[in-house]
Amino acid sequence: MKIHTTVKRIGLAVLSVWLPAMSLSHAASAQTPQGPAVMFEKRCYSCHNIGSGDKKGPDLKGVTDRRTRDWLHEYILAPAAMNRKGDQAAAELFKKFAPEVMPDQALTPEEMDGILNMIQDLTRKGEVYVPPGAKLARAIGPTDAHDGLLLFTGRWKFQNGGPACISCHNFKGAGAFGGGTLGPDLTTANIKYRDPELISILQNPNFPTMNSVFGAHPLNDEEIVKIFALFQNAKQQNPNAQVAATAPIEAKFPLIGAGALILAIVGMNLIWKNRLRGVREEIVRRSRI
Ligand code: HEC
Ligand code: HEC
């Protein structure tokens, strides 16, 4: 059938651009030299605070006093391997933070010591880590929340080619059918996370699933302002909302091949394109009046 072939063609075209693009920019980004504060923000901050409480992983305040340097070097490179070999401290951490599992971190010994020295320094001074880059590029304007919804639902495309958030996330008010369920509902994202944390997730989501998709296709500054405005708006409209529990999906994800993941995403985007067409045309019609 005609529609079928078109869908297949779009699928193949998307794949042929995506696959090489993803592997190329991953290789390139691994080599940029960075200071420890920026490195921590990009690689660790989506899961760890220093001095402001546990997140997906433990607060790292005082970790350089709790553990030896050797232990930390070995653990950060390969947490799961350390747990498997029966290390007691690792086993306790895994139990406490299950189902979350810390992904292996590819750091040089110098980068690792840079981060650990920074943690030690902040701990000594009793200071809290604030990410250096987690600021919006400009103030939020009146149309940003609305634009953010258009981006979230895929009505507007992301400039660097990332998939629409709605293919994996639900969001109150984002279309008649609700969103995907691979990721958690984001209606309360701005209640669950403090502003700099949420901005830093949008800039650099160091969660396995999100990173495999957006690592090579980051949101640009304008898109971050608009999506952030959407989340902030949702907080104002649902002041009493309860934060939804995060789906325990992360642990399973490293087991699924990247190829399968990309196929699934491309597939979901195509399905969404069709399911949302009616709703989108309605939005466009209304915005023209
Ligand atoms: C996707 C989330 C995630 C990311 C990203 C992450 N971690 Fe973790 N980290 C965890 C979790 C969860 C634990 C607890 C053990 C477990 O379940 O894996 C942990 C445990 C740790 C511990 C042990 C803490 C203690 O009390 O002994 C250290 C140290 C650590 N992480 C450092 C880092 C550093 C440094 C980075 C960045 C280079 C990083 N982590 C990135 C989730 C993460
Ligand atoms: C391929 C599916 C996928 C897409 C597309 C996606 N996400 Fe996610 N996202 C996830 C998953 C799965 C999680 C849970 C953590 C993990 O395993 O990565 C998550 C977690 C999050 C979180 C943290 C939520 C929490 O409760 O801790 C935020 C915020 C977020 N995503 C925002 C976005 C935004 C904004 C977009 C669009 C720009 C987006 N995501 C697109 C899959 C996706």
Q: What would your notes on this structure say?
A:
- With 289 residues, the protein is mainly α.
- It has helices at residues 2-29, 36-43, 63-66, 69-77, 79-84, 88-97, 109-125, 144-152, 189-192, 195-203, 208-214, 221-237, 258-288.
- The structure holds heme C (2 copies).
- One heme C is lined by residues 43-44, 46-48, 56-58, 60, 63, 66-67, 72, 75-76, 79, 93-94, 97, 100-103, 105, 107, 115, 206-207.
- Residues 162-163, 165, 167-169, 182-184, 186, 189, 192, 201-202, 207-210, 213, 219, 227, 246, 249-250, 253, 265 line the site of one heme C.
Summarize the structure.
The protein is mainly α. The chain has helices at 2-29, 36-43, 63-66, 69-77, 79-84, 88-97, 109-125, 144-152, 189-192, 195-203, 208-214, 221-237, 258-288. The two termini are 36 Å apart.
Q: Briefly note the CATH topology name of the largest domain.
A: Cytochrome Bc1 Complex, Chain D, domain 2
> How is the main sheet built?
none
Overall mean pLDDT: 79
Rg calculated over all Cα atoms: 20 Å
Spell the H/E element sequence: HHHHHHHHHHHHH
Whole-Å distance between the termini? 36 Å
What's the domain count?
3
Bound molecules: heme C
Shape: globular
The CATH class of the largest domain is Mainly Alpha
Structural class, from secondary structure content?
A: mainly alpha
Low-confidence regions: 10-32, 246-256, 277-289
CATH architecture of the largest domain: Orthogonal Bundle
Number of helices: 13
At the fourth level of CATH, the homologous superfamily of the largest domain is Cytochrome c-like domain
Helix share, percent: 55-70%
* Strand residues, percent: under 5%
Total strands: 0
